[in-house]
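Bench log, entry 3. Co-assembly request; chain sequences pasted below exactly as received.
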Amino acid sequence: MPALGVRVEGVTKRLGHTLALQGVSTVFEPGRVHGIVGPNGAGKTTLMRVLTGLLKPTQGEVFYYDAQGDVSAAQAKGQTGYFPQEPSLYPDLSCREHLEFFRDLYDLPSQAFESRAKELFDATGMSAFSGRPAGKLSGGMYKKLGLMCVLLNRPRLLLLDEPTVGVDPVSRQELWELVYGFAGQETTVVLSTSYMDEAQRCSKVHILDGGVLKAADTPQALMRRFEVMQFADIFLKK
Amino acid sequence: MKIRRIVLQGFFKKEFTQIVRDPKMLFAIFFIPLIQTVMFGLALTSEVKNVELAVLAKPSSRVARDIRARAQASGWFKVADIFEHADPVSLIESRRAEAVLIAPKEGFEKALERGSEPVQLLVNATNAQRAQQVNGYVQQIVAEVAAQRGYDVSSGVIQLDERVLFNHNLDTTSYMIPALMVMSTFIVLLVVCGMAIAKEKETGTMEKLISSPCTVEEIMLGKTLPYFVIGLVIVGLILFVGVAWFGIPFRGSLWQVGVNGGLFALSALAVALIISTVVSTQQQAMMGSMLYLLPGILLSGVFFPVANIPGVFRWMCYLNPMMYSVANFRAVILKGGDMGLFWSNCFWLTVICVVLCTCAYKNFKSTLN
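Structure output for the full assembly:
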């Protein structure tokens, strides 16, 4: 199945008295790794939730598509994986039990599940901890398990909301390798981050500030446009 | 509406695994109903016992002696003495007697024969409810003695036409255990299921479920059906303890217990779902459950007869699913086959269930959306 792309057109989202997003229009092309970058309160999580369908826009629309044409929101929901900022898991269930629970939610055949579970345990280096309850995992392993639950369904659109916050540098590197390993022809990755080095690793960066989309392009093109040598300077220069 | 068996299976497995691994949860689900059953069965009884009765009559009166003998054999009275000359009021004031039955001047025999002379009964009514019951006991004993001795007291001075049916010994345990099957199960289902859903919201796992390919219906059923099964198990457990340990009669059919149990468990889970849609933490879910449970139990007929509740509040009883379930279990277990009453209660319970489930479904769906 080809990767899913998303077209966001004039999306405004009001949360109480706050305008979390104001007329955001951008395109997340299929098969690429997209970064949504911005300071705290820029509207990154709100945009992520709008992309997953958890929040409905106050104004504007979100369209999903792939190489063959438009995809309905209902179809897209079944093929989207969302990794929230706090990847909440069940502390009393083991890693293996988490994957089994999500296997049932995704309605995966046993054979496909076994091969994918093995692949994910191997890729994350978590095989030795498959029987350990989630509540007893380290911060990095906890995030990896959260990501494994999402990746088990082989999503065509993978949405990661600040996946590396609170994770040590080694685990951050491992999480990145895992994400890059799955991105490509079959999966579009959209991640939000406050880390500029992570933003630079994306093939396209969408800069949000105060709920407004400032720019969206490759990191190199953005540095040229804002006339800075370092990516972080885009925000410092402001 | 898409509901897949495999998804529900996944929820069942997850919920049961989590319950089994949480000792506090297991305690709340099974131990608390058992403790309540034992407490209500053995200790917390509204039955009036240990009454001290004095009979003012000639010691030679056969009727007086029969009354004393019957009173002592009934188990309700601690002491039953015959006094020839005593001041009945001072007997009560000095706490030598709680009730004094006074024979007319010419004796019990003549009074019962004529049926016109008043047989006076003085009862200490500082506890009105207790006094009412003591009054009933004495009337019953006098009626029995009179009948045994062949007196016609149908038009007499004391109301002697009272009969106690279905629970001949006015045994509180037999009366309370069917009510407990509803009360304990309702408490457990409301609190445990409400908190389980609130926990998913509080810890953020609900977000994960919503963003998964599961439908709202699958999440809703997946989160409630395991507790439905648990509810039926608790009903069966209390019934088993009631019959096997406390020896309560079981005159109805198991399928009636199943139908009534299923309907009220469904209504309890619907209330839990509604509460869970308006709260965001487990603490709030607990508070919400308590807010419902307190009036719900008081207006269910478990402790106070619905007929005694003033009309202004009685309509609240009619909206309470617990009331119909309690009435049904008491009728099924103690009486047996009053099918008219059973189906009438089931009908109203179903109506309430449908309304509650519809509200729960709409609320749950709109909250998730």
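The mean pLDDT of chain B is 82. The first helix of chain B runs from residue 5 to 21.
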